[in-house]
Structure formats: structure tokens, C-alpha cells
Specification:
By secondary structure, the chain is α/β, with parallel strands linked by helices. It has 2 domains: about 35 residues; about 170 residues, 3-Layer(aba) Sandwich (Aspartate Aminotransferase, domain 2), CATH 3.40.640.10. It is about 35% helix and about 15% strand.
Length: about 260
């Protein structure tokens, strides 16, 4: 059977049209992890840069013809750095999960322990053994959780951190009622030379709008995020970092821009 190119193209365009109309005019999106991109965000996203190779880092690409991509990435990095009060930002990860994976790969070795919120309390799969930590052969333990307060149990978590000496303690989740205790756990985390990572994917827009506490300002060492939830962009990711002198002892296999 021969392919009818005209018919196939017409079908593709019809499906895109009916999908857009259905999602924007005829339905209410109840998926918390999705947003509706603004026309301005779409305009910036749908341009020639979208289909160009930009592998590598600023000024050190594997392909030529990226000078305007470099300029835009540099500008975006600076905007994000100022917006979230970070000393360092990487906007290259293609998702929040990839951003989390980059942090694990940089700061841990196989067999290391990380602590994260239980999946039953709203943790993300990228924090769990059946996600990237398992692929990297990390041991994942639950931070103690208080169901009555629907938040991390600070006292029990401090005790556990001191006992198991994890390499990374992960706060942030897919389900929020209250901000997680960054400042309250920070001393214990640093006492064992660990890093406090806050996954802000679901609240990044609220942080930018100052309606939710900024984990970096509270002392978190690293903040990862995706850019398509409360932050009204396309499906992408990023991570921000406040560099501390003790982080230099960790071997980095990932070199951000």
C-alpha cells in the first residue's frame, strides 16, 4: 500500500488543530504538572533555534552557527540567576528529572545513601530507587514523615541524617500543602558533609512570584526544577546552585555551563 502524503499531512494538521481547540477551549486541565503556555512563550519557543544543534557549553559547541543561541542561553542564564538569587544556573537539562540525575551523578558514588520524602507523601519518582537513583545504584531511604502535619518530621529526620550520613537530602515533591523544612534540616545536613537539594519543579512559578519561599535563600545548596508547571514555559528543566566551600571536596562528573 502506497503512502498518500497529502492525506497524511492533512490528518496530522487536523489532529493538531482539534487537540489545541480541545485543550484550550473545551476542557479544564486538572493535571497539576501541566500548564498552558502563553502566546509569548510559544512565540519564543517556536522559532528556528528549536531545531538546531547546540550541544556543548557556551562558546564551546560541537556545531557552528550557534552565536545567537549562545547569546540567548547566556541571557536566560543571567535572568534565572537574578530571579532566583543563585550564584550559578544551568538551563540545559531537558527536564527536571534530568536535572536531578545530573546532581546525583555529580555528587554521589554507587552505594551512597540519599534521603527523600516517601512516595506515599508525594515524592517524585526521580527521587526514588525505581527512578534515576536506582539506575545510579544509590541507596534511597525515607525521610521521616508526619502525616498529621503533612510535612517532614524535623526531629526524627535530624536524627536519621546524623545516623546514616547521606550524601544528598532531597526536599520538594509533587504534592504540597506546606513548604518543607529547609532551614531546620540544614545544620544537620552540613554537619555530615551532605548536600541539601530542593526539587522545586511544582512550585517554581510560585517562587518566582514570591508566593512560596525560595529554597536557595533559605540555604538549600541546589534547587532543581522543570519549567512547564507553575512556571509557564515548555517542557524543560534547570538547576540552580549556591556554591559552598565544602562542595569542592566532591568529585564532579558533570560540568555545567
Amino acid at each position: 500500500m502506497s503512502l498518500d502524503i497529502d492525506s497524511a499531512l492533512s490528518r496530522v494538521l487536523d489532529l493538531v488543530k482539534v487537540h489545541n481547540r480541545w485543550r484550550r477551549l473545551e476542557s479544564i486541565n486538572l493535571i497539576a504538572s501541566e500548564n498552558v503556555m502563553s502566546p509569548l512563550a510559544e512565540y519564543v519557543y517556536l522559532n528556528d533555534m528549536e531545531g538546531r544543534y547546540a550541544e556543548g557549553t557556551l562558546g564551546n559547541r560541537y556545531y557552528q552557527g550557534t552565536k545567537y543561541i549562545d547569546a540567548l542561553e547566556g541571557l536566560l542564564t543571567d535572568i534565572m540567576r537574578q530571579l532566583f538569587h543563585a550564584k550559578f544556573v544551568d538551563v540545559r537539562p531537558i527536564s527536571g528529572t534530568i536535572a536531578n540525575t545530573a546532581v546525583y551523578a555529580a555528587l554521589t558514588e554507587p552505594g551512597d545513601t540519599i534521603l527523600s520524602i516517601p512516595i506515599t507523601a508525594g515524592s517524585h519518582i526521580s527521587h526514588r530507587a525505581n527512578g534515576a537513583p536506582g539506575i545510579l545504584r544509590l541507596k534511597v531511604m525515607n525521610l521521616p514523615w508526619d502525616n498529621d502535619e503533612f510535612n517532614v518530621d524535623v526531629d526524627k529526620s535530624i536524627k536519621l541524617i546524623r545516623e546514616v550520613k547521606p550524601k544528598i537530602v532531597i526536599l520538594g515533591s509533587s504534592v504540597y500543602l506546606f513548604p518543607h523544612p529547609v532551614r531546620e534540616l540544614l545544620d544537620a545536613v552540613h554537619e555530615v558533609n551532605a548536600v541539601l537539594l530542593h526539587d522545586s519543579a511544582h512550585v517554581l512559578g510560585l517562587i518566582a512570584g514570591k508566593a512560596f519561599p525560595n529554597p536557595l535563600e533559605l540555604g538549600a545548596d541546589i534547587m532543581t526544577s522543570s519549567t512547564h508547571k507553575t512556571f509557564p514555559g515548555p517542557q524543560e528543566g534547570s538547576f540552580s546552585q549556591i556554591m559552598r566551600s565544602y562542595l569542592a571536596k566532591y568529585r564532579r562528573r558533570y560540568s555545567p555551563a
